[in-house]
Amino acid sequence: MMTITFLSSTIRKSLVQKLRTAVVASLAVGLVVGAPVYAQENPMNTSTQKAALPRVLLLATGGTIAGSADSRGSGAYNAGAIGAQQLISSVAGLGELASLSAEQVASIGSQDMTDDVWFKLAHRIQEAFDKHEADSVVITHGTDTMEETAYFLSLVLKTDKPVVLVGSMRPATALGADGPANIYQAVQVAVDRQSIGRGVLVVMNDQIDSARGVTKTHSTSVQTMQSPNLGSQGYVDLGHVRFLQPVQPSQLLTLPKAAPLPRVEIIYSHSNMDASQIEHAIADKAKGIILAGMGDGNTSKAALAALEKAASQGIVVVRSTRVSKGYVNRDVEVDDSKSGFVASMDLNPQKARVLTQLLIANGITDPVKVQEAFLNGH
Length: 378
Ligand code: ASP
Prior knowledge:
This protein has helices spanning 9-28, 84-89, 94-97, 115-130, 146-156, 179-190, 276-283, 301-312, 336-339, 349-361, 367-376; strands at residues 4-6, 55-62, 99-108, 136-140, 163-166, 200-204, 207-210, 215-216, 225-226, 234-236, 241-243, 251-253, 264-268, 288-293, 316-321, 342-343. The chain is of the alpha/beta class. It has an 8-stranded mixed beta sheet. A 4-stranded parallel beta sheet has the order 13-14-15-16, with helices on both faces. Helix 5 runs parallel beside helix 10 and helix 7 packs parallel to helix 8. The two termini are 23 Å apart. Aspartic acid binds at residues 63-64, 79, 109-111, 142-144, 167, 169.
């Protein structure tokens, strides 16, 4: 069954306004059970006001943020070794910001992220919001695939409540571990009422990024999560959360009944490229192929011919780019209209793959419709 919804900015703004009004009203009449109490309405949180603290559900999945090493200066560590509760206890002052509960969803390096874990996260978050168990969710996650998990959740969660992903580049036991400060800032953002209606966010190293925009840009630096095409949403320091961009309309697709998502392959383009990888993807019954093309989504004549063959067989073919910054536009050096291809616009190959998987799962495979989803989603 196909469901695709674009909330116009007007509808979204009015939803956000309604939520804000409800929050302010609940404060005016005292505490309403189950009503979210976000940070800016209650700047004087103290331990005697515990009941008024926003309820944050922390879902732990592993990653370096939960990593532990034998030596503090060592580069080697086990991702996901530290549990959810221990992570929370390691962050001084967190209890002043929020009333936290923690659940362990997985204990993996995010290079091992699976559709099953994505579905578990999506179901648990939706349930927690629908049953009014939490006002916001924070997910601790490895940075390797954080952008994909964030984007997947942003496409399937039906909520205006804040969901924030956070990770770290140094394990908890390392000198200068960045995890505790990142968790603190993630909770700061999650309980701030300005975060309502902004979809899924990523908070790391003082910066707030959108699920659609963010990507890992550095293999080791703590300043790794950036939004090269869309720019950051805002910044967070110990006292303040500042958004620089307005609330954007969001794109929603129906979460399929069960994992796995349809098979979509990413094919990386390079000089002297032949058609063999694409032929393999067709033979392996891929439902979609994402080209991590050169420059503006280009590839060799041989590869293009194989991609045309794939498109003619009903495989969704999306041209993205291996370049770290810039849009891939339609019909520039490649005739997308003639070949039945889709241009990925601002989405890098791994994000284009997530969107394509969900579109196919929602029964949207016509290249014109798929292109609309890539164009309209931000
Ligand atoms: N390999 C780790 C992961 O993604 C790296 C990190 O967390 O920064 O889980």
